[in-house]
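Chapter summary example.
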Amino acid sequence: MKGRRRRNDTSKGYYPSKNVSEALLMVVSMSVLLSVVSASFQLSSGGVQKSVDMHRYHRGWGGVGRTMPSSSLYLSQDGGTNSEGGGLMLSNLSKSSLVESAFAALSDEDQYDAVLTGLCAKLLDNPLEGGDDNDTTLQDPLQLLQEMNARNILASPRSTMALIDVAVKVEDPRVMAAILSAAIANGAVRRYGSLQSDISPVPLNVKKKQDRLQKLADVPSDNRAEEVASAVSVSGLLGVCFLWNAVESLFGTNHPNDFGSDDYSWITTLVSSTSVSSIVITTVVTVFVLDNFFDVLRTGSQFLLESKAMPDSVRDRNWVLPSKDAMPLGLGSGKITGTVVAGLGRLVNVDTERECECEAAALFCAYSLGLPCFAFRPNALEAAVLMVESVQPPSAQDGKFGSALDPLWSSMGLLKVLIWLMAPVAMESSKHAQLQASDPREGSGFLQRLEQKSQLLLDASGSSSNSSSNNNNDNVISDLLRSDNPESQQEAQDLIKWAYAEADLMLRNNKPTITALTERLIGGAATVGDCIAVIEEW
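The structure predicted for these 538 residues follows.
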């Protein structure tokens, strides 16, 4: 290796090392020299001093020469150790952690906000499957909020939103009512139940009630079961026919003449030239044309018969289409094809904005009327469960959640629940002719479920209160729920119509809030807490 210079060559300034002992002696001598120079430099230096705790020198992290990370960094202006706290310093980790020091520096409001938000975040991350254990778990945030109320500490919008989302996740009206009651006492929530006084109750005077009912718009009708069934039937029939025609065109079919007579030759000719599937398709198209263009066809036939170009033999037969009333199955009115087209629209059309509008209307009405049930799509079953649970006496297992839910077994309570159910219908009918995202049958379905549970509700309501007003409400509602009585059925329909009108009026008076809620829901990631923030204008 003559062409390469060795690293121990003296011409490059390196000390030669003839043996290992000499090299070790050299390293030790250099280390001692550097230690002496460093010590003298530290003793003589002044001004800003940076010192690392030497007691943290140890051998654990890769041997001698590595130090533990330390937060004891002193910045001094006079060259001292800053033990008097004259400069900026972070607390020693041996006495308190950095998190504890930072938390102690926060105000009481920020400390409570951080703890409450953290508790709610932990509960949101952990799955809640329902049951009494969830009530016990949610007592910690509720107790913390009550402690904030005792100390007059206002909860922040962030922690209140998280708390509402946790209560919604439990799906228990009693828990939701308790959380919102504590939030109202705290002052964080101001608009929950704020529109209850704007409701116009059904007057006891029959004349006044009938006068207003005559001025109100009728509840939109809905026949989605028949529409969907018709659309599925026609679509399936046409699909099978087109498939059969495709198979016939590929493989071909033979129709031998088995009649043995010329009198029936036209039948075999018809069958051989036109399959049954083609006949069905032609019939469907003919019905569609007659049902939608009947007036045009009838006017055109009359015009042709009256024209001079028409032969007298044809004119004398008077081949004119009959009137609509004489047509079978209501052909010419557009009812048949309208039903099919409406059903196809329900099956194919997906309007996200329309669905979000209905969800926003239901959520706004429930919150503004003080109903602790924030379902985006209310239904009769959930409304009946809310009504039953509101009159159940609190049990020992309910704890602090039992007495917060106000009873709804009254005329006003029944009207509030119906307004909540009819809010999506009122919202959708104000913008669209056909209802797709909402169902007007939920109101009558709710009353039917209450009729099934009427005895249970009467017993529970009687055990909770024995006042004369409560007995009057029991009598009014029990008479209303008697489906075997025609007068009761009419009263129920009038009540649903009244609730529909009240919901429509409430939504129209709060249109900007509904629009903001709809925009928030269209995003697809909004929670109930986010929607409440829109209503509360946080």
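To summarize the output: DSSP finds 22 helices and no strands in the chain.
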